[in-house]
Design goal:
globular
């Protein structure tokens, strides 16, 4: 299930909106997808036995460096 979620989010992230405005309030966007990936990578050791800290940091950096949040 873990690998399926990671592959589906990575496969669809380019199709999601990158907008952050009241027009898109409550909609799942690229930044929500990056957050979901970060959360999955943060807990990867529990799910798979292999830590994925660097991937978690990279997803968080994308959100922080966007300047939107």
């Amino acid at each position: 299930m873990y690998d399926f979620i990671i592959s589906e989010v990575n496969g669809s992230i380019a199709n999601l909106s990158d907008a952050n405005s009241t027009l898109y309030y409550g909609r799942f966007n690229q930044w929500a997808a990056h957050f979901l990936l970060a959360k999955m990578y943060l807990n990867a050791e529990v799910y798979t036995g292999t830590p994925r800290w660097d991937e978690c940091i990279a997803e968080c950096d994308q959100i922080i460096n966007s300047g939107l949040y």
